[in-house]
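Hi R.,

As promised on Friday, here is the backbone we talked about, encoded as structure tokens. Could you run it through your design pipeline when you get a chance and send me back a sequence?
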């Protein structure tokens, strides 16, 4: 029997506010445990929550970017459950009337096709605290600093069919929330995380199978591994005559497998009811228009513009617009060096390679856009060759100065004097009579050998185009 997976993702984006969703306590990461949970976050008697307007504006921003409906009226509810890291015994969330309704996000597949993934809803809620299980012996510790931190839970339709599609969707949403400036996307700090709902069914069957939810996946790699394992696990159970239990599972990254955590709750298990301390949220058309005016250029629009304005391929444009900061950096370089393709090659090549090697973000690069553009101008005006430029870039990365200073200090300026190059070519030919005879007998691939001899003799400084032209004249003469 052939099987098909049905996958939906619930993405939790921590909103980039300075204070919590219902209190003035700080959301800064890394503070000493339990120093950023105030009386409101803890639900102490006599306190009342006050909604953070900035969190609402961020939710509207996402709704507009997803071409989703933004509710004129939405309601906060209490979601009741009892965990040690949930100090009030309930979580303030949204249930029946979320702030963002149905929308969509388009993803690119490996075969070059695009697929539209429906977004069911995005609702505002507060985060819980965190249970700590290391360093306390047989006990667990509770850190409530995260309690009350504003989250936007983004729920997809079950439109995803493979783990790769799920990762593509998650990456696209990750890029979008960062473009919008509503979430820093730091997955190691828990600012962007995923719950994956996975089921399988026979190919051709319309009804969904029983799903399992894999909780708290905080890397793209773990999402792919966890979903693939869960698909295989469910197929194996069904083919052995068993049944799938609706449950919540955790992914063990060391073992590469999911394991049961608890039975999966239904909505009625949480006993949702409207929060009596919070009025319904009213969003006016004027506020929506105001937020719309604040939107930056979105990734798809920017990618299309890069293709149209800079003549880039779809592939290059997609890579350069994956991050708003990277796109801005590229545009700054391209605008200063007047060769967009050269700028794209260097930003995606040498620069991105150096950033990955050092584990840095684009905003942390020691070679800013103006410095890289100046280096590229030296390639374009034939001061240095592309090969020598890589040596110069590495020196700039290590802090040896700008391109002009490195070129001068190291004596790297390209040799463009025709007579000097002719002398080098004549020496290379004279020193290798056997290869000359073979070349003239038809082994024209030896052209590369002679180029190498000339470049070796001049330390790579000779203009490659001139070397090739003069060599061909001499060898064929």
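Update: got your reply. Pasting your designed sequence below so it's all in one thread:
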């Amino acid at each position: 029997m052939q099987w098909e997976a049905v996958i939906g993702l619930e993405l939790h984006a921590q909103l980039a506010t300075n204070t919590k969703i219902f209190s003035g306590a700080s959301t800064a990461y890394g503070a000493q445990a339990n120093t950023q949970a105030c009386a409101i976050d803890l639900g102490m008697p006599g306190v009342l929550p006050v909604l953070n307007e900035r969190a609402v504006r961020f939710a509207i921003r996402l709704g507009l970017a997803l071409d989703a409906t933004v509710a004129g009226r939405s309601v906060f509810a209490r979601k009741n459950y009892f965990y040690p890291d949930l100090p009030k015994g309930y979580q303030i969330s949204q249930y029946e009337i979320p702030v963002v309704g149905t929308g969509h996000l388009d993803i690119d597949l490996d075969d070059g096709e695009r697929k539209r993934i429906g977004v069911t809803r995005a609702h505002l809620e507060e985060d819980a605290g965190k249970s700590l299980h290391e360093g306390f012996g047989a006990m667990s510790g509770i850190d409530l600093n995260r309690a009350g931190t504003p989250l936007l839970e983004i729920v997809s339709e079950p439109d995803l069919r493979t783990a790769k599609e799920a990762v593509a969707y998650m990456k696209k949403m990750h890029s979008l929330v960062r473009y919008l400036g509503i979430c820093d996307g730091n997955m190691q700090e828990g600012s962007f995380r995923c719950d994956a709902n996975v089921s399988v069914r026979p190919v051709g069957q319309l009804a969904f199978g029983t799903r399992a939810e894999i909780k708290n996946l905080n890397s793209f790699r773990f999402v792919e591994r966890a979903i693939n394992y869960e698909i295989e696990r469910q197929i194996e159970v069904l083919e052995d005559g068993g049944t799938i239990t609706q449950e919540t599972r955790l992914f063990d990254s060391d073992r590469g497998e999911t394991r049961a955590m608890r039975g999966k709750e239904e909505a009625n298990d949480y006993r949702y009811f409207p929060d009596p301390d919070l009025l319904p949220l009213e969003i006016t058309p004027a506020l929506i228009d105001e937020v719309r005016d604040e939107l930056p250029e979105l990734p798809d629009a920017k990618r299309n513009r890069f293709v149209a304005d800079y003549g880039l391929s779809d592939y290059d444009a997609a890579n350069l617009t994956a991050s708003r900061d990277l796109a801005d950096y590229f545009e700054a370089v391209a605008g200063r060096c007047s060769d967009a393709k050269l700028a794209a090659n260097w930003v995606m090549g040498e620069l991105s390679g150096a950033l990955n090697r050092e584990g840095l973000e684009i905003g942390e690069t020691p070679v800013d856009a103006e410095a890289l553009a100046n280096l590229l101008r030296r390639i374009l005006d034939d001061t240095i060759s592309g090969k020598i430029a890589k040596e110069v870039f590495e020196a700039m990365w290590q802090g040896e100065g700008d391109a002009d200073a490195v070129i001068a200090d190291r004596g790297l300026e390209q040799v463009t004097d025709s007579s000097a190059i002719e002398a080098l070519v004549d020496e290379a030919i004279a020193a290798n009579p056997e290869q000359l005879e073979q070349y003239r007998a038809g082994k024209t691939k030896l052209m590369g050998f002679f180029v190498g001899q000339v470049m070796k003799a001049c330390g790579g400084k000779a203009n490659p185009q001139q070397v090739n032209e003069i060599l061909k004249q001499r060898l064929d003469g």
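One thing I noticed while checking it: The radius of gyration is 29 Å.

Thanks again,
M.
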